[in-house]
Design a protein that fits this description.
Four copies of one chain form a homotetramer. By secondary structure, chain A is an alpha+beta fold. In chain A, 23% of the residues lie in helices and 43% in strands. In chain A, the strands form three sheets. Chain A has an eight-stranded antiparallel β-sheet with strand order 1-2-3-6-7-8-9-12. A two-stranded antiparallel ribbon of chain A has the order 4-5. The first copy, chain A, has a two-stranded antiparallel ribbon with strand order 10-11. At the A-B interface, strand 1, helix 1, helix 2, helix 5 and strand 9 of A face strand 1, helix 1, helix 2, helix 5 and strand 9 of B.
């Protein structure tokens, strides 16, 4: 028996230049399309008569983009999902994932150039559309937002067993590479401003929190988003703890006044939760 | 409100040398530990009194490994999960993920050296243990098994729309980088032989299948595992279609008799399904 | 016989927090140290009596950082190189490579937080010090600076042979991920401002150039740096051509007015040159 | 003034299927082409009249492959270099780099399938051809060959200073990810067997060496290749020291009898040398 079947196309790279005289705009997306539906025959008997080729999915991304400015990733994802559902009777649910890569304008002297761009953030904006015959759901997110705070971060009063060697601390570096995703209550909001408000709220809440743990800060960040952005139904935060360990300088007859750290890649703590409205 | 909370440690690198005289054995694991349970207080109030540090989880991996040969990754994962559940009352479910990196012996002349090793497979063995107060579940897998067949692969008789440009073919290269995971019916089987049989069965089924699509071959591979390995309850296969496109040589006045291909990384098809017993 | 021997430590991650009351500063370096000298005995006979352990090199990075603010990467590299040359008679040349990862301050409302940071550029600053008993050379650079221009870029009037299918164009997207490295004439300049001026000059020259090819723009960028920054002796630019190919929409009965592109990762052109003063 | 100019195409992915009845052979190459020559005009004035497009270089890879089996990577690289030098008068030197990705046959029962393949080694074979109007040089290599020995590896009697904390040891794990490249004395040898002998010799020498340091083992491996393979002129070895650190189990009241290690990714030692004939 078959379960949880899905097929689609990933890694579809789309760059659109919107030419408004001397001032161009740029959108840079990586799109993934995923179909779930009545496709079991293709698996079991090799009958492809219902299987829209993934190559056609890719072509459709470019064809729909050619109709006009793609706009926000959520809006473009909605267009794609609607298109596929209208045309493909066996399709039960279409999921569209879009990652947007950020470009800023290059400044020349004191003005922004209209036609030259530089990648300006290492973090990525994400959007997910889940659409079926009855329902449309829109999710937005930010991927790999690297943040660090050098004060107001503690971790102590935890249980100890015979394998516990971690010292308690009231003053540690807290660094993470945040991935957050949030579902909107409605599928027709103003996605650009909403995304920017959520990202800013996450940053501010991280900066201002007096942290007792990554868990504690994660919750404060999620809570702040729910408090400040009514359009958000719930938010999931995944926060790897990018440990910055103080170097033991006493071996060299020196003191480390919480200034010298080694940034480690592994192992890493991994803290996750979803904060939802009651 | 909080939902789907989890915390743990990832990327714990463990190498064990088992020294039996001149012949050493090697196990090379990357371990991840994930706790789910009554930890909401730590998120909401910053009370860490129930939060076993992830640093202690890491230490526990090494301490338990020091008791004796770790054995198969599934067995070691079971020991870890049991240890954590016994010691941590708030813990509802422990999930242990282990990736095993394969080493073979270096041959010197016509014998295998007992103490020198070479990494011998690019694919990785995986194991997952999910244990709670009532139940133990064991999953095994293989990650990124790159396979390719140069015959008996077709893709045709698919629906066409105005954006379909893909030609039909009865003879294409089929390449994928398989990730498969399967749950065992019982948590106490002989994990090493079972894993090897499943891997070999996947390879043989891939080689022998007359493929009408990736979906079709995925199903045949899953079916073969269920048919040949009674210990397996169900198997999930994720198969990116690593497209190998024939080069159009007609532009150079040459013919491509299905011999010259460009291997592409993106975009890629992505085909998934779980094959289960009825 | 032995030639081109070198040994050292790479991947030394150093994060320094400089605490000035409520306002902290952050430096985030990845350091590599490379020794060349009279170390042949260690290779040939296994005599380690001259071989300062690479573990000690790593410790030295942290110990020297603990003396006070590390400052610019070039300055810290100079301190490291001097330290090693003074202490190690067999050492003929020390090379220090430092990559600096950029952090900006998180804004809270309309002010910058003093103790919370966000990674703010995907490109990396680099510094290299080459020091021997007679000479000190300082190199700075920028790694993976992704830039794109949507006008004033052509590629035509190139030679054609029987394998040439590329159409000529007067209007293409030009994108690259620039890595530039430049040597300073003197080892004691004000490294921070110099680096910022070179980076800005590279961006402006890229934006303003009317490009006939990647080669043409590379030269203009290098020339601009030599013209604007007298401290620079020469500059090397490595510019992969990140091809953005216009999609053929005519297959869908549509026209591509140079607006819809696929960004490709491979294959890629690779253009390199050093621009030097006469 | 311009120096060290070069341009070319990288990341050209070529897969060739050689169909001999039921038994197919597979070659899987990533090719890079690099031109050096009289191309300064293109940089300085934007005159492209001498600049063979890198897109044509890519096409040429496929066109030459279509003439017949590509054979060993060195042989195919020689054909490419000759082709480009014959056709391009401004070209002074052509450098061709080829990485070969290894595929083995899938076994079905007790026979090898003729048309189904599995990637069978994580390390990569490399070849480099440097050809100018007067000379042809051929280099071969192996990239990222991960090897580990669990005995006969020491590091002691090294100098200590105030920052040295490393303990001396007569018994440590030695692991590296070897990249080796060697130049052949003549450009017309039997490249396949030569490559296999060098790789086997490197492995055997690593296994059998009583190591006082990475440097010491590096030299022994290079020396063994020069001793066993007369066709090799010199060999360069780059050996990152993939440190496997013994875990301090005494904190848990346990003893580590050199059995439990953490494999670390950074920092890492980096040891390099070229071993040449006198």
């Amino acid at each position: 028996m078959l379960a949880d079947t899905a097929y689609g196309k990933s890694g579809v790279r789309l760059v659109q230049v919107i030419r408004r005289g001397d001032r161009h705009d740029l959108r840079d997306f990586t799109v993934a399309i995923r179909f779930e539906g009545a496709y079991d025959e293709s698996y079991v008997t090799g009958d492809n008569s219902a299987v829209l080729p993934t190559d056609t999915m890719k072509n459709t991304v470019y064809a729909l983009a050619a109709r006009g400015p793609v706009g926000e990733p959520e809006s473009f994802g909605l267009s794609l999902a609607r298109h596929f559902l209208e045309r493909n009777p066996p399709l039960r649910r279409a999921t569209i994932d879009i990652a947007e890569h950020a470009w800023g304008r290059i400044s020349v002297g004191d003005r922004d150039d209209g036609q030259a761009f530089v990648r300006d953030r290492p973090d990525t904006r994400s959007a997910r559309i889940e659409m079926d015959r009855a329902q449309i759901r829109v999710c937005a997110g930010v991927t790999d937002l690297s943040i660090l705070k050098s004060s107001h971060s503690a971790f102590d009063r935890f249980p100890r067993d015979e394998y516990t060697t971690l010292p308690e601390t009231r003053d540690r570096l807290l660094a993470t590479s945040l991935t957050a995703t949030w579902w909107y209550l409605e599928p027709d909001i103003d996605f650009g401003p909403a995304w920017r408000v959520v990202r800013r709220t996450l940053l501010e809440a991280f900066a201002e929190h007096h942290s007792e743990s990554v868990q504690h800060t994660l919750h404060a960040m999620g809570q702040a988003v729910l408090d400040c952005v009514p359009a958000v139904a719930d938010i999931r935060l995944v926060m790897p703890n990018r440990h910055h360990l103080p170097i033991d300088l006493s071996r060299f007859g020196m003191e480390n006044r919480n200034e010298i750290f080694v940034a480690t890649a592994e192992p890493y703590g991994l803290i996750e939760a979803t904060v939802t409205r009651a």
